[in-house]
Amino acid sequence: MKIGIFFGGPAREREISFAGGKTAMENIDKSLFTPIPVFVDGNGNFIILNEALVYSSSIRDFYPPQSYQGDYQIYSESLGQLSDEALEAMIATIGTRITPDKFKAYFDFAFIAMHGPACEDGSIQGLFEWYGIPYSGPSVMGSSIGIDKIAQNDLIKLAVGLDKKTATLTRQQFNTEDIAVLFESIKSQVGLPFVVKAPHQGSSIGVAFVKKDDVNDFEKAIKQCFFIREVSLDEWQSTNKKEFVQRMANLDEGIGLPVALNNELIYHPAVLLEKLDQHFAENLPTAVLVSSNAEDAILFESFVKGQEFSCGVIQTPDCVSVALPPTEIIAAVEVFDFKAKYQSSATRKRIPIETSLDNLHKVQADVKKAFDSLKFGVCTRIDGFLTPEGNVLLHDPNTIPGMSPTSLIFKQMAEIGLNVTDAITYFIRQSIRERIRTGKNIIKFQLLLDTLDKAIAQRIEGLKNRNKVAFVFGGFSPEAQEASYAEARKVYGKIAATSENTPIPIFVTGQSAATASLYVLPTNLMFKEFAEDIVKALDGSVHPLIVQTRKNAEAITLHFTGQLVGEVSSIEASSLSTLCQQQINFVADLTLDLPAFS
User: Fold this and answer.
1) Could you give the CA distance from residue 20 to residue 407 in angstroms, rounded to a whole number?
2) Quick check: 517 and 510 in contact, CB under 8 A?
3) Within 10 A of 510 (CB to CB), how many other CB atoms are there?
4) Beta-strand (E) ranges in 377-453?
5) What pLDDT digit, counting tens, does each position of 9-45 carry?
6) Distance CA 331, CA 316 (A)
């Protein structure tokens, strides 16, 4: 089956999407699927990307091509309106442009790894519906709910009850009403401190936190979430101007281009520098930059004290929802925003939440009820807080969870025995099943589903004949264990995605090669955050919530892997040759007499 992997897109989250596309390309099961990389540029053009470019570190490394970049790193929107001929010539340097009416000629299924507006809000899902292409994730309706934080609060309240104070503020109100009066109004509705959110962004973009009774902090937070950047004359005169306009174009630290200045839309950093110089030449005290992709309203939520968590919900092959073990997010920062999530070590994750078993069951019950009531389907990760009183407050359903190999959804699915490759197969299979439920193309999609289920069963049957590759990692110090674990995870994913090999993770502890202890690890332990988490699990203990969740998910685990989750088992080095045919060794000073893997 040919799978179009869609990544990039026009939203601010395009670099995260690009990374997710790489994950899908690398980890998709090559024995079942042929992946086709489909890059979506900032203007919504669909491009069959030259595969070597998939592994670039950033979109701007290849698009627009370097000959178009000049002195700045830009995205395609900064080039303005190109002629059809110029656009085709530029795209031809990286791949082949295709139109939606030609999708069926290239792939049988669309795997969506894109985030944010137009990418996970039902827009592209509706496009696939129109052209009869089965796609991954929830339906158009579920996707539209999943992107709208204001609507989510109302619907979750109807589904499970939601004792959380909220308020909204429109751009018109902000522009016309007194800021001090607005501040008093918001405080009266949600209290202090509170969180401010841009309601239609993904990946925690457009999030601010107001904790002091200070109207200036309030105004700053509002402008941040409306994607407004004010520049003072002093700032402009004292800054490195070229670096400043480059930061404005960067999606992780600026508001992104194009921006409006004095009601003029500016696309390119060089033009922005020129226009700001002209603006301040008139000795005006302030310039106001507004993103062209700004919000019309923002959301305020009362600050919740409690344990922050994220909990995925998936489905059995027969569409019965199953809540996964919830992950506790232990933050060293006040706001779990874009940078905390993707660009720092500001958080740690723990599965499950450290609380009573009754509270854990309550979390799972509520996220499952919200998933079912809001008609999400396939997979949705729902975030929330568990208060000290044991109350569950849900928010921010995410219908296209992050797709890095260490993403929360993959960690949670690993606890029921699915590695990243198995999880991607689940997303594809279950999405085809979900498309059948919409009542469109059901005969075609049922045949596709039957063919895939047969192929999955044949793959499972053939696993026993695959070459078993042991990769030995860990070591004789915490530092060696952590370093080798980072490398071992990458190798594990690559081996699991091949059609010829099966990975066998072997973890080593001890003081030296002479006293080394070796352990065969089950799938879930390859998705822990740190090697020290593996060490703690070597006694074989499993949290009772995870035991119960595995039982609830048995139909899923068996359908996609053919076996239930294994246990930690110790092994002698001399026995490795009976367990596997080849090895990769990451442990210094440990020699094992097996042929090397290539």
Assistant:
1) 10
2) yes
3) 15
4) 379-386, 392-398
5) 998 899 999 999 999 999 999 999 999 999 999 999 9
6) 32
Closest C-alpha to 329, from 360, 312, 350, 354: 350
Residue carrying structure tokens 């001090």: 180
Identify the CA nearest to 59 among candidates 85, 95, 111.
Answer: 95
Give me the pLDDT at residue 587, please.
87
Sign of CA dihedral 270, 275, 276, 281: positive
Q: Determine the pLDDT at residue 463.
A: 94
**Structure-token match 């009772």, residue found:** 544
Cis before 352? omega within 30: yes
Q: What domains lie within the chain, and their CATH numbers?
A: 2-137 (3.40.50.20), 227-294 (no CATH), 305-418 (3.30.470.20), 466-585 (3.40.50)
Report the largest interatomic distance among the alpha carbons of the chain, rounded to a whole angstrom: 81
pLDDT (average), residues 241-249:
95
CA 78 to CA 66: how far, in whole Å?
Answer: 14
Q: Is the peptide bond before 285 cis (omega within 30 degrees of 0)?
A: no
pLDDT digits (tens, 9 = 90+) for 538-564: 999 999 999 999 999 999 999 999 999
End-to-end CA, the chain: 27
Burial 575-593 (b: 16+ CB within 10 A, else e): ebeeebbbbbbbbeebebe
On the 0-12 / 13-18 / 19+ scale of CB atoms within 10 A, 203 is buried
For 340-387, the pLDDT digits (tens) are 444 445 578 999 999 999 999 999 999 999 999 999 999 999 999 999
> 68 or 336, which is more confident?
68
